[in-house]
Structure formats: C-alpha cells, structure tokens
Amino acid sequence: MPLSPGTRLGPYEIVDAIGAGGMGEVYRARDTKLGRDVAVKVLPAAVAHDPHRLARFAREAHVLGALNHPNIAHIHGLEDSTGIPAIVMELVDGQTLSDRIADGPLALGEALPVAKQIAEALEAAHAHGIIHRDLKPSNVKIRSDGIVKVLDFGLAKAFDHGSGEWGPEESARSSTLTVPMTGIGAVLGTAAYMAPEQARGKTVDARADIWAFGCVLFELVSGMRTFRGGDAADTIVAVLSRDPDWSTLPAGTTALRPLLDRCLRKDPRQRLQAIGDARIQLDELISGASHTAADPPANGARPQRVWARAATLIGVATVAALTTWLLTTRASQIPPLLSSRFEIAPPSALMPAIQGADRDIAVAPDGSFFVYRAGSQAQLAIRRVDQLDAVPVGGVTNARGPFISPDGKWIGFVENNTNLKKVAVAGGSPITLAVLPGSPRGAAWVDDATIVVATNATGLLRVPASGGEPTVLTTPDRAQGELGHLHPSALPGGRSLLFTIATRQPANAEVAVVDLETRRVSRLLRGGSDARYVSSGHLLYESGGGTLSAVTFDPDRVVVTGDSVPVIEKVAVSNTGSLNAAVSGSGMLIYLRGGLGDARPRSLSWIDRQGRETVFPAPERAYASLRLSPEGTVVALEVRDPTPNIWLWDLARQTLMPLTFNGGMAPVWTPDGHRVVFASAGVESPNLYARAADGTGTDTRLTTSANVQVPTSVTPDGRFVISVERRQQTASDLVQVTLNRTAADQTAMAGVIETSFTEQNGEVSPDGRFLAYESNEAGRFEVFVQPYPESRGKWRVSSGGGTRPVWTRNGRELVYLDAANHLTIVPLETTGSTLRAGRATTLAATAYAATNIAWRTFDVSPDGQRFLVIKEPASTAQDQNFVVVLNFLEELKQKIH
Fold it and tell me: pTM for this one?
C-alpha cells in the first residue's frame, strides 16, 4: 500500500510521492533529525515480503553505500525500524534525461558534458567492481546547476575482479533481472539499452554498461532511440541483428561517430574495453567543440516533430492504400513477404486443455488442419482450414501429446499416460502401438515406418509406426547431470533427430541431435528446449519464459550457423520446456498464448461457505499445490519459479520462507505438524522425502524407486504415507509407505489400489476408516471412497466428474473439484464400514484452483468453515484463442539473415 504524507519511517517523515516502478516506490521525505529533504525508496507492496526482492533491495543499499562520487546519487542509510525496509538517499531535483530528450535532442555542446559526467559515474562504479546493468535516460538526472546524477542501481551487481565477469549462476539470471515484466513500457525501455550478450542471457561484464552508455549518448544527440521496435521482441531483434541508423544523427556530430561506433559493437571483444577511454575521448571532443561550427539549437527539434507528424500522415495514407490493394487483389498475387495474423476461437465444448508436461498442439505438414487436446475429457479436436469449427476425434479420451504422420493421414497420441496409439484422420477406432514404460515427454513421427517417443522414465524410444515393442535410442547420462531426453523432432531426410537434454536447472537445458543409425549425440544449443526445424533454414525453440526463438541452421552439416533471435513472446509453455506451437511445411504458425506455464504467478484466497472471497496476504508467486498445517497456522506451498520447491507461509508473522532448496513438490504434513513429506523435483522419477517443518536438519529420503512417486496424505496415526506411484506398464496406483522405518527397512511399501486405471490424490479419513481418491475407471476422473485399510467395496461420490478430494476435519464431508474445477461439498454418513453420500453442493461458480496441476490446489481450515485456494491470474477468452500467422517463414527470413 502506498505511503501517505505524514507517515514516519524512523526519523524520516513522508512528504509526497516522487515516482514508482517495478524496482520500488520513491518518496520525498523530511529528515527530522538533520532538517534536510531526502529521497526514501521502499519496495512496492505486492513484493514487499518476497525474500528475493528483499535481498535485491538490500543489495542495492550495499552497492550504493560502496560508491561515493559526485555524479552518483549517494545513500544516507538503510532504515527498517518500522518493519518497512527503506533506502534513504540523496534527493536529486531536476529533469531526467528522458524528460529532457522529450523536448528535443541536445546540442552537441550540451550533450558532451552530460555524457562525460555519466562516463565518470560509471568509471567510479567499475573501479569498485560494480556494474549498473540498467543505464538508460530515465535513470539519469540533470540538476539545475548542470550536475548529472546517475540513479537506480537496483540491478547493479558486483563482479569478480579476477575474471572481470559474473559467475554462471548470476549470468543465467541477468537477462531476467534486466527485463522486469511490469508492463510493456518497462520491457521496451530496458530492452532498448541491453547489450546483445545481456539480451541472450550470456555472461556480461562492464562492457554491457559501455553499450548502454553508447545508446544513451546516441539518443542524447539524435532525440531517437538507437534501437526501436513495436514490442519487446522487435526491440531485442533490433539490438541483436540491426545496426544503428546513423542517418538520424544531426549534422555537426561527425567527430562523435567513431566513439559511438566503438561503444555499439555487438561483439563485446570489439567494443570499447573501458569506460575511462570514452571519458578521455569526450574530454578531447569538448576541448575542440569551441573551434567547430555551432550546432543547431535544441529547439531545432520542433521542425523535426512537424516533419514526423507529416511522415505519420503519409504513412497512414500508404497503409490505407495498401489495405485497399490487398482487398482487391487475388491471394496468388500477394507478395510472399507479407505475413498476416489472426485468431481462431475454439468451440466452448472443445476449449484447449493444455497439460503441463509436453506439447498439446500439432499441425498437418500441408497446413490443411491442426489438432489439439481439448475439453474436460482430454479429447483430441481437429480444426480444418475449410471448416468453421473444430470437431472431436471419435473414440479418443484421456489423450495427450498429439503428433501427425508425414503424410498427414494419422494422428499419434498417448492415452492414459502410457498407451501409445494412432488414429486415422479420416476416422475409425484408435490403434494401440505400444505400452510405454513411463509418462510421455513428446513424440515425433520420423518417417512412414518409425515413431520416436520420450518418457520421464527413459531416454528416447524407437517404436514401429505399425506397432511393436519400444527399443532404446538414447539414455540420459545421469552422472553428467542429464535428467532426461525430451521433445524429439525429426530433421529432413529422416537420418537424425532433434531432442532436448533436460537438467535440474531449466536454464541449462540443451538442444541436441542424435544420428538414428549410429546413435551418436551432438549438442547444438545451450539454454533452449523443444527445437524443431523449419524449411526456411531455421531452428525454432523455447528459450525461456515461453519465448519462441529462432537461429539459422544447416541441416546437411547439422550445425547452427548464426545467432539466436527472439521471435514471439508469451507462447504457452509446459513445465518441461515444450511450446504449444506448431509450424506447417507451408509456413503457417499456430500457437496458444500463455508464457510461463506452471511458473506464472498466482495468488491465494480464502473462500467461506457462502462463496465469499477474501484475498490471502501472501505475495503472488508460481504456486502449484498447498496444504494447511494440522493447527492451521502455517501453509506449505509448492512454488515453481521455475524449479519447484517447498515454501512455508506463517499466518501469524505473515512471512514466506523456503523449506527445501534442492527441489520439492506436493507437500503433505504429518499429523503432529513436525514434518513435511514431499516429492523430489526433477525430470527423472521423483521419490518421497521428508524434512523437519522448522527447517532444521536435512532432507530425509523415504523411498528409492525407478517409478514416479508423489505423496498425497499421511494416515491419522502417522504410520504411513499414501502416495501415487506410476509403475511401468501400468497407469498410476496408490501405495502406502511406512513413514518411520529403520535403516534396514528401506523398502517397506505396499499396494493400496492397483488397477489398470489411474488412481491418484488418495486421502485417508480423519478416523482412519476410509480412503477417498480419484480414478478414471469410468472414462473420466470421478471421486470414490472405499474402506481402509481393508478394501470391501467402494462408493462413487461425484457425478459428472470430480478430482482432488479432501475430508473436512470432522470426517462428515468431502470437498472436491468438479469437472469445471468448482469447489464442491458432499455430506457423508458412515455406519460401520458402509458409507452414504448426500447431495453435492457447489460452493462457488468460479474455477479458483489451478487446472493444469494434478495435485491438491486447495485445503480446508481446521474448523471446516473456510477453504484456502490457489487462484489463477485473471484471463480473458482471448487467452484460449489460437493465434495463426500466415507466411511465417517469410517473416523469419526478414528478421534473421
């Protein structure tokens, strides 16, 4: 919440607000002890409790405290006596360079002294081993006396004096920190000043500040940004692939151009190596400026603006004429360089149902149709270009990962996580090809005779397209940190195959290629996944955060031949790095919006029995599952940003602290509240672990299995963990694991429900006599209850679909999500070992819980009167529309040479 005038932070009294942004809120304040005005910077309320932002905030204070230079706004202190961390800084009055440039470019005689002072500030920072990383006109102020102050070292970072660089971990984060997703303006404003190596997420050093300095100096004398684009992707494309438009520099700046050229070299090795060299050149230019012809006055920008308006009017007229020509010209006469975009809205009964592990959209090679996963039954839907609506593929439910044969006659998919099948596009019954030894992680139809499929339990498997036993093609090297081989995609000629080498850190994933004859693996790209080749001579791949990037590629030599360029942002991406996008051989791109997938920020809310919602005070994070402690005082949360880990929110202290550091998901409390049981995180098969809830000690491994195991509850007596286990050759079963075992008894596990169907989310009743769970034996997931520990029959509790059951603490009700993800309550009556379910009631007609996560996304308070839920971010119907780009390959050729 913004600070109001009169608010006291220790001795500092807030006077008024100066400005706000993603990095903080800045206020004018009065130092009541020393009688001076100061600037006070605090974190925005939305992130004030985020430990990462708090750490970065404290880092800024320490960075500024280490600098003492007349051209750097210096720090007076760090104030946190009131519980609100605040940096107290020198108050700098005056215009920012952004404001100054808005009035027109600076004359050379005015611009050079300003640039020199910026260079001196950077020189002092670099001498202390500090890189700014976010230098731009809005972070520089000019006082009325002409003194320049460089502001906002919120992204600054100390670097290693020995190497002059950051380490790999900091480098991997640098591009994320430098592109705060707080709004389009912030993204564009920062992207326009990022060095090429910074935009690619590579290791950067002080030369990144020299690039930004060049951009600022160019803008000072031209009045225009050095690199411009309609959105962040276009701007980064300009940074990575285009040269500055030197023609925009005014007359009289010829002597300055060599310095600008040396600052703006895309290869940092060819760039100016020290900002002090720029200061020396500026000194020389300033000394000679009085002997050169006078430059046009600053208000010379006014005629430029008049001409800019005239050019805009001419441009509008040109676009109008072009539009008229397009509407009256045959499609065959339209030049191939023109791409076009439009959206397709799916039918309400066949909305996209994107799950979180692999790609759920595919397009025919000739572009005549595309297929996607749809509806509450996980059907496959076909949308033909000559039809107005999508239609379901007959006989297919519980499907995922569709892919299409090279001749466009067959659709491949996986049913119930393990059955690899195909179905004819023309119609007919699905045909089983193989039973997979794990859940799928992508598949590709290499040629008419061969399919390659990846699973979470293996590497790549080769399966005959006519059906047969899978054979191993690749095996992940676990000793080298490879967690899996995912997302296969065929290269031309059918001789080799692209795939993703997954690692524990998603940013370190690699795109690789395997020769199908020799099985030799070669690595192509680091920091990418889900690559596929397109006939324009490019590889498309996911480069992080749902960004579709492209790089030139030679399929004959199987080598990357150019630099990567971001092409489209915020494409729906799975938690294993696969993009829900597909390109036909004819150059049509189809994709779904979405961005970070399971790693997108979500909020928490309380819902009462009247359906009224109260916002929970925890900050927005990528919450994926949650459980309330037995006393209801602490919430265990799975947070995916992007690697899953368990965090604890203390309701009394209102703090969020990490519990695990090496990966963790699906937390479950022991009845005494002393421990949290969870599944290890990673692409390899997760097993069960436990950790003390107070954070002491280390993670204790409970199981050692090649199968995926995820805990869903602990029995009321604390003896057993109920867990999902995805066994080879079967769907998921429910097992129980002895919680407190001796070292010699590490395999104490027994089956609870073992069928050919998928059972999951099992939870034992508070009295220990019944087990609630969900199963797809009826064709879709429904909630069932059966006696426990001895099974003597069962009762179906839900109708029309149900998942994620949880008992109220008195054992008289079950709460679950219906097929539309609405919270639903069913009263229960038990007599001995029998059960009677009453009429179900929908609590609220809103799908609060996350829909793409299999584990519990809500819990019930100890008194049974409130429900804590994960709430998806606000979305619109547009988020469910397919985006179609025609002539996409021609667009690629223009962007990437």
Answer: 0.53
